[in-house]
Design brief:
Blueprint (H helix, E strand, L loop, with lengths): L4 E2 L3 E3 L6 E3 L3 E3 L4 E4 L4 E12 L4 E5 L6 E10 L15 E3 L1 E4 L7 E6 L3 E4 L2 E3 L3 E6 L6 E6 L2 E3 L7 E6 L3 E6 L1
Parallel strand pairs: 1-4, 2-5, 3-6, 4-6, 5-7, 6-8, 7-9, 8-10, 8-11, 9-12, 10-13, 11-14, 12-15, 13-16, 14-17, 15-18
Length: about 170
Amino acid sequence: TVSQVITSNQTWTAAGSPYIVSQNVMVRSGVTVKVKPGTRIRATGNFSILMESGAGFEAKGTKDSVINIDTVNFEFYKGANGYNFSTGGGSFFSYCFFKGNGLGSLRTFALNETSLLISNCRFWNSYYAFYCINSNTATAKLRLEKSIFEGTKFNYGYVLYTMGNSTELEMDE
């Protein structure tokens, strides 16, 4: 079970799986959670992993060892350690399978003036895959590379919802 507050850097591995999120989890400023290939993360309800200003999350699966994330929501507060497209550092998700719960108003990712890289990921049954909030003065970039968005027969929702004027979206394949 993941603790309610993460105060030091952590590495989550397949051997330690599954990581159970049974309450909202706060990742404190300056702390990074790194997730290794094959790891499984599962929520027991509508719970989020919240990144404070300066906190980050790096999930790096592989083609042959995907990270499975079951009904966990991620929220990046303003100032969180988002992805830096100039240096290639910061928060990112690659080769992850996100299983949503398809319910209205739930967000797999809530980004508040935070940039993020999503690469080779699959989203299934998400209502809001990405919910981006930006002020008129800040610009955040969301880059989606080689990712798939699917739903159930009766699913509805949005791959991307933005609020504010400065969300830059880049997509390929």
